[in-house]
Amino acid sequence: MFLDQDNSPHKPCARQQLLNYSQEFCETEFYLQMMQLGPDKWCHLESISKYDSLRVDAAVVNSLICSYLLIVICLRAYSSLSICVEMVSSHLRCFYPNAGTQDFFIHIHSLYFQNCTKKDLAPEDAPGWVVMVLTLIPVSLIPVLVYLVVWKSKVQE
User: Fold this and answer.
1) Contact indicator for 35, 130 with CB cutoff of 8 Å
2) What is the distance, to the nearest Å, from the Cα of residue 129 to the centroid of all Cα atoms in its chain?
3) What CA–CA distances, in Å, run from 2 to 58, 66, 81, 84, 121?
4) Residue 122's pLDDT is what?
5) Which residues cross the membrane (predicted)?
6) Residue 125 neighbours by CB under 8 Å, 6+ apart
């Protein structure tokens, strides 16, 4: 699924270090943002992920990871988490996405978003008039087609 860094000629990705940094620098901030938002809004995508454009000093994120000015595209909790994990991966010279970041996001989803599935997943029935029209059209075409076949066979005789 992801590029195999272990077979690359470059320095391999330190998966454990990637996980540790992601948890220390990204998950901690994400936790604070999610607690500030409140559990009742965790399942509302508009509340946790919003795209804006702003310049932010990346040293605020962590001086160990970045010490330059970065254009941050996303500011809300989940979007910030994604950017943070990507920055950590870049700092550790790991491909992004990779199996380690996938495992990290699965961990995040299991903690915060496990109860976000819709309860009524059953599809709604189509309105009665739609069912009637879609049933009558093919049924009414059958006698017409039978008549055409019979008429065509009589004409050829």
Assistant:
1) no
2) 36
3) 27, 25, 20, 19, 31
4) 66
5) 59-78, 129-150
6) 131
